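Case study.
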Amino acid sequence: MNVSVLFSGGKDSSLSAILLDQFFDVELVTCSFSVLPIGDIAKKAAEELGFPHRVLKLDNEILENAFNIIVKDGFPKNAIDHIHHKAVETLASDDGVVAIADGIRRDDRVPLLTNPQVHSIEDRYGVHYICPLRGYGRAAVNALVKQYLVIEEGQSDEIIKADYETELREVIRQRIGQDGIDKIFPSHVQSRVIGRVN
Amino acid sequence: MNVSVLFSGGKDSSLSAILLDQFFDVELVTCSFSVLPIGDIAKKAAEELGFPHRVLKLDNEILENAFNIIVKDGFPKNAIDHIHHKAVETLASDDGVVAIADGIRRDDRVPLLTNPQVHSIEDRYGVHYICPLRGYGRAAVNALVKQYLVIEEGQSDEIIKADYETELREVIRQRIGQDGIDKIFPSHVQSRVIGRVN
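After joint prediction, the assembly is written out as follows.
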């Protein structure tokens, strides 16, 4: 079975692809609004991992809605959840996509689909939605990452990743300025995959 | 890393072991109160799968508590959850056990550990608790089972499995009779693994 793994170039989506590799034909898919060249960044990481990769252009209305949500809320969760939900739906509507996976871990809070959202997507589009790391805690993920991946880590404003946050931050920077980013996004450690251990 | 997979001989715990196989050294562990020879049933299935297997004797006080819970409740969920929680704790306290896995799927309701129970076990015993199928829906599990396992299916009173329910049903049969079982347990389809597709 083919599976399309939503891919940010980070350790969680990379490890998810590796866990699926033996049982599925894996392609990596990076969603982008074309605000920044995050597709190129992800493509490089995908090449290091040895998986086929493509960029899925998302409708800019999704980004506009996410911008309105995050400005109203003052925190990122609902905006990121919105982009993720629409990204999964967009990918699910692609011809030939039968299974979609992402890198969400057991203790993740953002982004999350609710169970009703998951069942609705699976039923409407006839796809499987799979989270290979959903039953793994942070320590178990880190142990596997150490064994199978080479990563670099840094604060979220230093590491350019191909995730939803990157382009949303850029839009906020353009329209509100760096102050807006500092107010809305908590600083947190990001990882980027730079190699695979075979 | 070693992982001890709680093993009932059913399709979910078998598939979990197969998903982990490439990344961990897998042993299968069947918990038993020695009420029925379920360890032997599981051993046969484990041999078909090609994994090392052992039986873990659980304290009979756990079964007594589960019996009291199920008689008081009139339905199985809390009693099965109790046995599962104590089984994971017993296994976690074994010397040399560093990771424990089970076959719980995304949409399973029984048995379940709560997130606080999981974090408490991981912290107290220094183990990883992993549910490889937690991010898979029923249809995705069935597709993988079809590809990798040979199973037989039947109603829960026809298929003898090596799960918590089997010995709890037997105790109820001995003490209350078949009527007790029919009242407490909803009839449901069980699976038993009889082979592996390589």
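Observations recorded in class. The interface with chain B takes residues 1, 19, 22-23, 99, 104, 106-107, 115, 118, 122, 128-137, 139-140, 143-144, 147-148 of chain A (CB under 8 Å). Strands of chain A lie at 2-6, 25-32, 53-57, 99-101, 128-130, 149-155, 189-196. We will return to this complex in the next lecture.
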